[in-house]
Amino acid sequence: MANAKALEFTIERNSAPVEANERAKLLENPGFGNLFTDHMVVIRWSENLGWHDANIKKRGPIQMNPASSVLHYAQEIFEGMKAYRLADGSTALFRPEENAKRFQASARRMAMPELPVEVFLQSVEKLVEIDRDWFPSVDGGSLYLRPFMFASEVFLGVRPAKEYLYMVIASPAGEYFKSGATAVTIWVSEDYSRAAPGGTGAAKCGGNYAASLVAQAEAIEQHCDQVVFLDAAERRWVEELGGMNLFFVMDDGKLITPPLSGTILPGITRESIIVLAREEGLEVSEEPYSIEQWRGDATSGKLVETFACGTAAVVTSVGMVKSRHGEFTIGSGGPGQLTEKLKSRLVDIQRGLSEDRHDWVKRLF
């Protein structure tokens, strides 16, 4: 069985990659999630062989049987992470071991096989190296990496599958939110919940995001950038956005963020922000925070900033919150001072511009 910590990869280079001049033109304005590199990683798992058949090959369509179990029972998980070009020209990943561990945790929750951390790291590092020419030169540009796994066994029946495909694709990325957005406006979802106790809220699986899309569509109809979800039981406690964790900054410098109670994704950016804020001497409390508190504290001035954080958008100020009951502005409605300071500290570490005291940055080449 090929279950060793490291696997031997077969590399089949794309015989017709995007030409350099065309690639350069594409990278002038990569956007987010629309442009992809020349290669992809594919590794198979089966009940009999374990992890095997590790390949890096030309990125292309996947041939699937219509009875593949993922299409019927949604056994699927993914990760989101970035590779960065550092100030000295080298390339690095930010806390990739944490992505690997979260991928394993998601797999356990979804009754899927756990990919060894070492194999996860191998897969993303090798793809970054082979597609290194795809780094965008735009300000804040990065190579967004999407490892994912799904049930590929051909069968109809409600049980964990016995065959899976693990893959990694890469996407040159610019800004997540539209250019010029200094603070986002969010919509409070009162009809829909993202996750419930005992559910899959802490797993990074496609089903969680699919369930959020109707609420996100509602937010767009209300001219908002994102949706924020409340807890499923009382519809009172603030949990997270459709794809980002939230922080609340009080007038005494205290930061509050909703606790990881099984319904919120344990964000790697979230955990990094907590560490950096405490290094600044700030109090950070992981505690429940209600929509009533949010509205009241913003109105009274006790709440001075709110920000969202995640791999894609990094750290983003929230300027206004809308709901059926009206709207309220946070602070001046623009980017918060502490928000920008914490974002700058985090980005400077990711880009190799400041000291990495925690060994978060893993240099590749």
Automatic annotation (TrEMBL):
Record key words, sorted: Amino-acid biosynthesis, Aminotransferase, Branched-chain amino acid biosynthesis, Pyridoxal phosphate, Transferase
EC number: 2.6.1.42
Origin superkingdom: Bacteria
A Gene Ontology molecular function term of the record: branched-chain-amino-acid transaminase activity
Enzyme class: transferase
InterPro entries: Aminotrans_IV, Aminotrans_IV_CS, Aminotransferase-like, B_amino_transII, BCAT-like_C, BCAT-like_N, BCAT_family
Residues bearing the modification N6-(pyridoxal phosphate)lysine: 204
Cofactor: pyridoxal 5'-phosphate
Catalytic activity: L-leucine + 2-oxoglutarate = 4-methyl-2-oxopentanoate + L-glutamate; L-valine + 2-oxoglutarate = 3-methyl-2-oxobutanoate + L-glutamate; L-isoleucine + 2-oxoglutarate = (S)-3-methyl-2-oxopentanoate + L-glutamate
A biological-process GO annotation: isoleucine biosynthetic process
Transmembrane segments: none
Associated pathway: Amino-acid biosynthesis; L-valine biosynthesis; L-valine from pyruvate: step 4/4; Amino-acid biosynthesis; L-leucine biosynthesis; L-leucine from 3-methyl-2-oxobutanoate: step 4/4; Amino-acid biosynthesis; L-isoleucine biosynthesis; L-isoleucine from 2-oxobutanoate: step 4/4
CDD domains xref list: BCAT_beta_family
Function recorded in the entry: Acts on leucine, isoleucine and valine.
Family: Belongs to the class-IV pyridoxal-phosphate-dependent aminotransferase family.
Protein name: Branched-chain-amino-acid aminotransferase
